[in-house]
Amino acid sequence: MDGLVALINQLHCEDKPLMACDNQIWCDIELDVNKYPANVSVGNQNKCIRRWFPDHESLMWINQILLNKKSNQHFKVNNHTPKSLWALLHRFLLNLSLNHDFEIGLIDKPDDFFKTSFAVTDDIREVEIPQYLIDYSNTKISSTSLQPTFWNKLIKAKFKQVKNLRNKKKLSHTSSVTGNINIKKSIARILENKKLTKQETLELLHSVNTEDTIEDILKYWIIHNLEDKGNKKSSANTYLSNVSKTWLRLKDLSNKIFDRGEVNSFFQKLEEQREQNDNPFRYEELTQLKQLYQFGEYLYDLPEIPFFSKIESKSELFINTGIISEQMFVLFINEYKEKSPHSDLTKKMMISCFIIFFRCGLRISELNKIRIRDVEIHDEDPNDLCSSLWIYIRNNNMGQNKSRSGYRRVPLGLLLKEEEKNHLINYINIKKQKANINNETPLFSWDFSSNKSVSRISIYNIFREYLSNHYDLTLVVHIFRHTAISRLYAILTNDSWLISKLSSYNKRQEYEIRNQLRLEGKDGLWSLAKFSGHSTPENTLKYYIHFADYHLYSVLSKRKENYNKNQILIRSGCSSQYLTYYLKKYGFGQTINLTDVKQMLKSSISPFCKKLRKSKEIDSSVIFNEINIVNYSTQDIYYVLQSIEKGNRFQYVSTQFKIELERIRRWAFNAKILSEMKNKNGGMRFVSKRRKKTSSGHFLCPTMPQTESEMKLINDIFNKSRAIYKKNTNNFNSSIQYFVENSTYSSPFLVFSEPIKLYEFLSVIKAFFKTKDIILEFSALKTSNSRKSKAFWNKHIENQGTLVDTGQIVNQNKKYPHGRIVLKILHPDNEELLEKANATLQKHFEEKIQNLRNLPTNLANLERLTLEANKRNSFEAYHTNVLKFVFHMFAIEYLNLKK
Q1: DSSP H or E segment with residue 885
Q2: H/E segment holding residue 809
Q3: Do residues 401 and 445 make contact, with C-beta atoms less than 8 angstroms apart?
Q4: Domain ranges, residue 790
Q5: Residue 85 shares a structural domain with residue 114
Q6: Is 642 part of any domain?
Q7: Distance (Å, rounded) from C-alpha 701 to C-alpha 183?
Q8: Tens of pLDDT along 836-847?
């Protein structure tokens, strides 16, 4: 209800309440910071902002509200409160129930209205709302959306840099913040200094040096209370005195603070000792201790322990900003490489660590316990991106996993870019050559021959000095984990807009990640949770996915429903003339699908939107020189052509996919020639009449097979094709040319009349398909001897396919002097498809047999024989258009076509 109130007030009070960028429209709704955790600071003021993307239906109603406001500017609207808005809604629902005769007694308060609205929405066909999105909308998840700080940085590609804290003029105060003798005293002196402003206090707290993770967590928890929760300095000082003594005793555990059993045992023993000394934990003390521990749990990866489960206190999410963008990461690495005093070897090690954090999202505790033996390096298979580099996450003398779900094998080779993979492998090889190195040596250690892993505080210090302190954002190392998991989730959803914002992988690598990690379908979320080291997707979605708002829009926008002109007019508030003009301009009939609503409302809603300029392309050359792919996949070619179809310029596409301009021009030219080829009747040979017009006016992409098995087969063929093309260039080109001259878009097969042509074609495709899957259907010439013709073809086929006599005849002597061969390829799932079809047919057959009982015996027997004959001949093998698709792509890649 609070979000709805904020939305309506914003629509009424602001001239431009909406935001627009990259064909997306959204609204930044400001919620009451006293009720909801702040997630952004504007100046010295903390705010809670939710980014909401209206779905197609909601956008129409918003357009109507804004048009009404524009036409009635003299009408004054008072700001609503939750109470006043619910009074209006409840009155409306009562009137609705009286007019339509339905019971409203169960919807008696705002929470009931919320639950009912989700029940109704979830009942819409094609809309399925995951539970975490319901929790997000009901504010059970306090802030999972992308923060405005991140969005502005990302979209504008501009960072507001602040001076390094080390170079700032130090403020005069009585306390020294450089000593680590007693961190509690250092922090307390700053908080007790009444002359300091809040901003000066925060700056001094940031400059306090810490010795270890325990002190680090305490310091940043106090900062969190002041900066994010808006507490006064006196309150923060009270919290410090309540928890510091107990908390700092955790230092006695040393490296065991990440051992779940040890930490839980520590608190239990401490509680027993205090009770024996008649000094039990006070409720406030225990509650604040729990909040401090949760802060360390979320951001410093402390293990979950059952000790605090008995205490009921409000669980909060302590993430201040959700994502580290690719550009921020590039700048961070460059800053460290150029300015750090560390040796080259140490820089190589630390950059390797941060690459793994950023790409794979490992916890610091997991990275620290990786040993030499936990790394697998293989000779790289160009057909398998994840085959070259793996890391095992398992318990050892360096530390324990956070939970049983933490045991896993991470495919680094799949997730790293080529230059990053080379950097890491180079570091590992150097490490192995050092003295005193064995399989039990930590992969990352400050001294290269040391048996002690690089300390967390060293990682934190580099992170703060070269990233966190340089921007007006509060960041912690654990944000890398949030970033990596959010990026993989974007790839899982296959949402092109989200992927463009969060991923710089090329299309081939995105496809491989989705395929290898099985990030598809209903099990995709479980696969992502397994990769992340979570036992269920609940925590993955609740704490690590930072665009629930956009995902909710995406879920609702799957609704494909046609509205007539009158329904659109009622909802959108547009004039009849506006709608008529739109329908004529874009060639629509009398109905509009919901998915076209945004386009329809574009000029109507545009005056109410603040427009942000598009994000700049990330200059990847600043960190590593990008290595262009030499062997392009079918997906690479397909997505390039698809981008050109949408009207993008060649130069933009070249930058977008990092492929040389001349190659892209050749692909587009060949694809355009193929699309313009016509058959004898004047129709298009490779393009369906039913295909919608493209923005560029050209149809460049062939129809792509849909099943996963077909796509896998296509990738295998394209990878094998390069070696075959080099060995047998003439036959390969001849076969492609034959395809171009004899194929059509509607037929998944090729027809042959000359044995020589068939032999050449089979000599090329026999490397791509199994012999049993190559079906050659023979039809004899009417005037010839069928047996001799079949033997003649068999002689040229040489067991390169399965010859099947169809029993049919052809009577075109000149065209088919030796008869006709139709080449077809069995579907990769042929056996499964046949089995399903057979089961369906058997069921139908049995139903028919049951109906014969009422017929006379002779007639029933005759009918039974007919049914059995029909059952045997009712279906044939399932064929695929993989052959047609790959040869179409071969023509685009290998030929130099001419008009």
Answers
A1: helix 882-894
A2: strand 802-810
A3: no
A4: 708-830+879-891
A5: yes
A6: no
A7: 64
A8: 777 776 676 666
